[in-house]
Task: structure prediction
Amino acid sequence: MPEYVIETKDLTKQYGDVIAVDRLSLRVPHGGVFGFLGPNGSGKTTTMGMLLGLVHPTSGEARIFGDPARHPATLRRVGAMVETPTFYPYLSGRANLRYFQGVGRRGSSSDIDRLLELVDLGKRAESKYATYSLGMKQRLGIACALLGDPELVFLDEPTNGLDPAGVVEVRELVRQLGKGGRTVILSSHLLAETELVCDNVAVLSRGRLIAQGTIQELLRQHDAFHLRTTDDAKARVTLAPLSWVERTEERDGGLVVTAPQARSWEITRALAETGVYVNELVPVHRSLEEFFMEITGTDPTTGRERS
Amino acid sequence: MIANIANLTRWEWFKLRRRWMLWIVLVFAILFAQLAVWGQFFSYENLQSTGGEITVPATLQQQQGRLPRTVACNDLLSGDQGRQPADLDVQVIAGLAAQCRQQAATQPARLARAYQGFTLPGSISTALVIVQALALILIAILTASAIGIDYGSGTLRSVLTQGTGRWPYLTAKILTLAILTALGLLVALATVAISSVIAGAIAGAAPSAATVTATWADAGLALWKAWVSVLPYLALTTFVTVVARSSAAGMAIGLGYYFLGQLLIALFSSLFSWFQNVADFLLVRNISAWTQGGAGTSGGFSSLGGSLPDATHAIVVLAIYTVALSTIAFWIFERRDVQGATVG
Result:
C-alpha cells in the first residue's frame, strides 16, 4: 500500500491566462480527516475536480492509492460530494441513491436504507428530489458519497444549507467517518468547524499550497506572546536578530512576539541581559481562522483581502 | 468493458422509464401508427361504398358560387335519377360520369391496394411511413432530453465520480436510446397488428381482384430501414446536445434541421439546378432515399427537390454522418472539463 492516499506532483490547471492551480504538490496521509482549506477561488474545487477525473490537468500528475487519479477503477474506491449536490429532479431520494449505487456498482440495496437513516432522510426517501430543501439535498449528497463504504471520501462544504443542529450532526458524522482507516477530505471555509474535526490540513491560496501539516503543528509555527517590558523599543531591537523569532510588532500597549512558546525562557533571558525586564508575558493562542487570515491575507468566508 | 456498458445501459433504462416524456413519445408513436391503419381502412370503406369520388371542377363551382365538393361515382353510374346531383347541369354530370367510367377500370387494383394498407402484413409498411417520420422528431426530443439533463441539472459530475468512465457512459445512453427506438417501433407495430386484425374482420373478405403483393419480408425490411434511418438523427442530436451542453439546443437544432432541411432543399433545388447535387449529400434527403428505396423505385421521387439518390448512396452517406457526428461527440465528451449545472 502506498504511503499516501493522495499524492500530487506539480499539478497545474490553467484556463487561458488564469492559473487556477499552480504546481500543487500535495500529500494526504492514510486515515483521518484532512482539511482542504482556502478562500473562494483558491483552487480547492478545481483540485478536487482533477483528482476525481472531472477536470483535465494542464500539467503535473495526481495519484490516488498510488494509481492515476482519473482512472474509473480508482474512482470506484472513492466517494465524493463536490460543490452543491446534483441529482435527478424527477427521481426520489431513494431512487437517486439506487441509480448511483447501480452505475458505480457500490454495495447492496440494503445499504441505501442504512444511509438514508444515517443522514436523517428516511421519512422523505420516497419524495422527489426536486421537492427537497437545500439541507436535505446536502444530506442526500453525503449519503451518496458514502455508497459502497469508500476508502476515501471527498466532502466539499458538506454543512452548506444545514441548520445548526444539522451542522453538529454532520460534524460528528465526519469525525466518525475519519476513524477506522478511512480518509475524509473535508473542504470548507468554516474554519472553526474544520479545526474541530480535522487531523491534518492543507491551505491553498491563489492556486498554491501555502501550508500543510497537523493543525497543532501549523498553529505552533505561529505561536506568539504578548509582552510588556520596562522598555518595549529596546526589547524590539534585542529580539529582532534572533533567528527563531519570526516577528515582533507593537500592539495593545505592548509587544506581540511570534516565536515558539517553548522558547519563552530564552526571550526573558535575552531581554534581561540587555537590561530590559519583563512585566508581563502571556501566551497568545491563535485559532485556525486567525492563522488562515494571517497566511492567506484573506477572509475565509468572503475570500476578500484583509484591509 | 462490455459488462460495464451493459450495466450502465440497464441503469439508463432505470432512469428513462421513470420519465413521462418516454411514455408520451410512445403514445404519440402508437396514435400515429393507428391513424395510418384506420385512415387506410376508412379510405377503403369509402372507396367501396362510393366507387371512388370525383371532384367537381373548381371553375364550375366558382361560376355557380358554390363551395368545393365531390360526387360519388356509384351515384353517377347508377342510372338512378334520384341519385344524380340535382344542382349540376346534365352535361357536367355526363362529363363526371365519363371520368368515373375511366376510373372504374382501375377500381379493383385501387381497392386491393387500400385493403393491403390496413391488413397484415401490408399495414406494417403503411404505418411505418408515418411512424418513421414521427420517430425522427420524437428521437430528437428524447435524445436531447436524456443527454441534456446531465448538463442542465449537473448530474454528469455525480455520475462520472462514480467511476463509470466517460465514453462507456455516453455509449450506454446512445445504446439505450437506439434499443428503445427499436422497441418503440415494435410496440407501435404490435398495436398496428392488432388493429389490422380488427379492421380486416370489419372489412370482411379481400376484394376479389386483390392480388397479395405485400409480404412479411417487406414488412421486416421496412422496419429495419425505419430503425436504421433514426440512427443518424440520434447521432446528430447527441452531437448538438454534447457540444452545446444543453437539451434545449439539442431539441432546437434536431427539430429545426428536420423541417428547415426539407424546406431549403425544396427551395434551392427549384432555384438552382446544381443544388440537387449538394442536396444528395444532406441528411434529411438521404433518410428519405433510404426509407423509400431510392431512385428507380416507385417511391424514389421526393416531392421536395426532384429524384432521390439510390439506396446504396443513401446508406453510405447516412453511415458517414452517423460515424462522423458520433466520433466528434465522443471526443468532446471525453476531453472537456465537467462543470456544475448549466440549467437548460
